[in-house]
Amino acid sequence: MERMQLITILTVGELVIAIIKTYPLSEHFLLSILTFVMVGFLFAAYIYQTAIRMNHHQEVAVAPLVYLHIAILIAINIITAGVEMYYEGQLLNIGVSMILIGITVFYLCLYGTTRYNKDEVQLTKGIIKAYILVYLICTTLAIIFNRNTEIFYLALAIQAILMVYISVDYRREED
């Protein structure tokens, strides 16, 4: 598990480098902040799920977890390519699609790992509904405003923040 987390950290690092190259802070201040917030909270959701909520001492088949991690890595790479393509005017639709597909695969796989959670932090129907509602609202806003880069990334940054908030708030309720 630790190796998969390390590879994921490196892959997120590549995404950060792509953001720095695509949206330099000196030229695109707001976009830099919004994309960093989005990526930071995607990473926080990943760490919170895989490092805090998972039971690392259970004896279960780990192959599904490895496959989910491989898909998470692919999703992060799709997001990276999408960020770079979204900046190119003629590749806008492809970039938008790649970012949204990457985020969708990321969340599906991340929440696929919840079967390995500690007993006290198993997902409930209410939490799943909250995740789905936030995902649908923010993704719909991103699709509607995909021609406005700031609003597009703002919707995805808010989505990432709320996904982490739901996870942390849920954990707090369980304590």
From TrEMBL:
Domain of life assignment: Bacteria
TM region positions: 28-48, 60-79, 91-114, 126-145, 151-168
Protein's name according to its UniProt entry: Low temperature requirement protein LtrA
One Pfam family, short name: LtrA
Keywords tagged on the record: Membrane, Transmembrane, Transmembrane helix
